[in-house]
Amino acid sequence: MKKRNTSIFRCASCGHEESKWLGRCPECGEWNTLTESTVQVPAGTRRGGVPQSVPLSAVDPQEGTRILSGIGELDRVLGGGIMKRSAILVGGEPGIGKSTLLLQAAATADTKGRILYVSGEESAGQVRMRADRIGVTGDRIEICCTGRLPDINTVIEAIKPVIMVIDSVQTLHSDEVGLVPGTVNQMKFCSWELISWAKEHDAALFLVAHITKEGVIAGPKTLEHMVDTVLYFEQNDADSRFLRAAKNRFGSVDEIGIFTMGEKGLSTVEDPSLLFLVSREGELPPGVATAAVLEGTRPLLVEIQALTVPAKGSMSRVFSDKIDQARVSRIAATLEKHLGIRFSDQDLYINVAGGIRIREVGVELAVAAALYSARTGIPVPARTAITGELSLAGEVRSVRRLAGRIKTAKGIGFETFLGPIPDSGENAEFMSATDLRQAVKLLFS
């Protein structure tokens, strides 16, 4: 493929490239370091305004670099950091801490370039009050309090931010689309303009969004397709906060970030398992079992609580908002089929201590143990962790990263571990079960 010459301006300090000369490098913040140089590029990206293809081998791998946010839990959920030229949509309930999280990330991000925080809901003084409360300082964070897209465009062209935070997308509006902010067309038009700017100027964009009473991001579904990553910020009844990815083009959607909210803002949880376990002395009450589950790449120990009571109507019901109700019904049916314990005339209540939602299959054997214990009144042995997937045939199937689960349980002080495969050499006493009947016999005999 033929190549053509073009001029770029490269920073002598950090190597950042711009299409025109700037007095200050947007990436490292150094002054008068951009020098003009001529490079050969594939006759590729644009020629005469017509897009053309570029060979994969000609793509600069540095375009896929990330910026560390300085908040380990946020980086974990994003897949290793903030990807340049990406757009990230963050949704959550009012007051949960979306603005606090992004303000803290703006202060600790590993970049010397400028960071623009656009607030369409608060004044500059209110943003400063929050920053002082959570201990955010520094001159590299620029504050712009407006929702008008032309004003925002003027600011970003002037300061060339490396990271932009728009709080919130529902306040954006442009006279080209109408005068009322928050409409479907306003959100789509304004968001696309900002996303395009971020991708063309090697920046990263955060869009804060409100959610509906159903718990989904308010506005057009197209907005979630336009961005690269969709994050949901959730909370339980306490001060814990959970950050999950519903969509992530640059990482896994299985990771979870765990925070606690305090007077100084959000702080990461160093040992998440302790957050989901209830401290008790002596034997466990009936209906309680400890599950060793995997959230992304992180093993967690969570307490499963089960309660069975006679059905109040002609049909039994399942009440479970942290574990899928269909999964609980399937586990109860498997117990009834293979162990002969009747659940069809019982209302089943399942809870997870700490309020975390569990979707991983490794929780199924622990749920079965909790249901069996609640129905028979026999407690699960104390300091015992359980993991395993259940098939409809009553088989206990293997799970991923079993060694990591055993190590986590051992580190917290659990003495016994029930799993699907033979002992892998861990010090904790390992009990292996091939089917549900054998697992119940090992636990309750």
Present the secondary structure layout.
Blueprint: E1 3-11, E2 17-18, E3 34-42, E4 46-47, E5 50-51, E6 66-67, H1 72-78, E7 82-83, E8 87-92, H2 98-108, E9 115-119, H3 124-134, E10 141-144, H4 149-159, E11 163-167, H5 184-200, E12 204-209, H6 222-226, E13 229-235, E14 240-248, E15 256-262, E16 265-268, E17 288-295, E18 298-310, E19 318-319, H7 325-339, E20 346-352, H8 364-376, E21 384-386, E22 389-390, E23 396-397, H9 402-412, E24 416-419, E25 429-432, H10 436-444
Parallel strand pairs: 8-12, 8-13, 9-10, 9-11, 11-12, 17-21, 19-20, 21-24, 24-25
Antiparallel strand pairs: 1-2, 1-3, 4-5, 6-7, 13-14, 14-15, 15-16, 17-18, 18-20, 22-23
Describe this structure in words.
The chain is of the alpha/beta class. It has three domains: 3-53, no CATH class; 65-270, P-loop containing nucleotide triphosphate hydrolases (Rossmann fold), CATH 3.40.50; 275-444, Ribosomal Protein S5, domain 2, CATH 3.30.230. Helices cover 25% and strands 28% of the residues. It contains ten helices and 25 strands. A nine-stranded mixed β-sheet has the order 10-9-11-12-8-13-14-15-16, with helices on both faces. The protein starts with a strand and ends with a helix.
Short description:
It is built from 10 helices and 25 strands. It is of the alpha/beta class. Strands 10-9-11-12-8-13-14-15-16 form a 9-stranded mixed beta sheet, with helices on both faces. Strands 19-20-18-17-21-24-25 form a 7-stranded mixed beta sheet.
Dominant shape: elongated
Model regions low in confidence, pLDDT < 50 over at least 5 residues: 42-48
Rg value: 26 Å
Helix content: 10-25%
Query: What structural class do helix, strand and pairing data support?
Result: alpha/beta
CATH class identity of the largest domain: Alpha Beta
